[in-house]
Structure formats: structure tokens, C-alpha cells
Amino acid sequence: MTDSMENKTPQEKPSEKPKMTWKRLWKEWILPFGLEIIALWLIVHFVFFVAIVPSGSMLPTIAEKSALFTWRVHDPEKLERGDIVVFESDELNETLIKRLIGLPGDHVVIAEDGSLTINGEAYPEEYVVYQYAIPGEYDVPQGHYLFFGDNRANSRDARYWNNTYIPAEKISGHAVFTIFPFGNFGKL
Fold it and tell me: Does residue 181 belong to any structural domain of this protein?
């Protein structure tokens, strides 16, 4: 019996957690969490954001209430005709998502059948399914852009606004990808 008693090692106490000090709290919780918040803020304000489509004006391309992955636009001059753009409307006091139709200096004509010509050349729009013609001519001023919804029959767009053209500084993003609803997941 003495041999078996000698082979037993005394039970070790479970290791105690170190006390939480201000230094440890700062190092392990506050600093990492703060850095994550700063990184997220920088990404959302300078790289990309998620835009929610407020209406059915972009049907059938984009469903109402869709969530779109959107790159921040820092230089609107790099946008191309046909891009889907997120911008602020001072007139409507809301964020809108529409198709870029007219670039600065463009002359845009909508015919009675709804077809477009831009700078004298026909501009086909395969994405417009619900056509509704409001004939008109638009001369896009420098530093401004012209936007229409894809659902021309049900889109309150530049054709109806008092301030027809959106200034470059009001453009915030270029939508490139639908992330929700999942049935529409994919590139725009």
C-alpha cells in the first residue's frame, strides 16, 4: 500500500484566470473592437456599400427591395452610359437607383415610340420591357447626368423631375451585383 500511495501525485489546482485589469481590458477587448469599427467605417465610406432598391422603377432588371452590392464612386467621369447608379435626389429627398442614360454634354431624344437617340445615334435598350413614351429632348449640362428607370411605364425618373439632371457630387455608387433576394443573386 505504501508503494501505491507514493505513486499518486497530489492533485493540481485548476489554473485560475488572470484578473481583468484595465490594461488587459484595453489590450484584449477595447483596442481590437475599436480597430474593427474603424476598418468597417473606412470600407463602407470609401470602398463599397449595400444599397436597397426603394421601388419597382428598375423592373425587370432589379426587383423592388433588392439589396445591391455597390462600389463607391469617387470619379463620376469614369461611369459609362448604361451603368446602374446610386445617387441622392435633393428634390425627392431620398436615395435612388436608376440607369445612367445621359453623360455630360449628351443630347438625348425620346421618340413617341419610346426609342432613344443619343447624340444623333440610336441607342437600343434591351433591358426596357415596360415601355412608356413621354417624348422629349434633353441636353445634359456639364457636370450633370441624366437617369431613367428601366420600368419606363412605372418610373418616376428624370422625365418627371423639376431638376432633370443630377449633379456629379450627388452620385455615390455603381451597383454591380444583386445579393438579395437570393433568387436574383448575381451580376447586374
Answer: yes
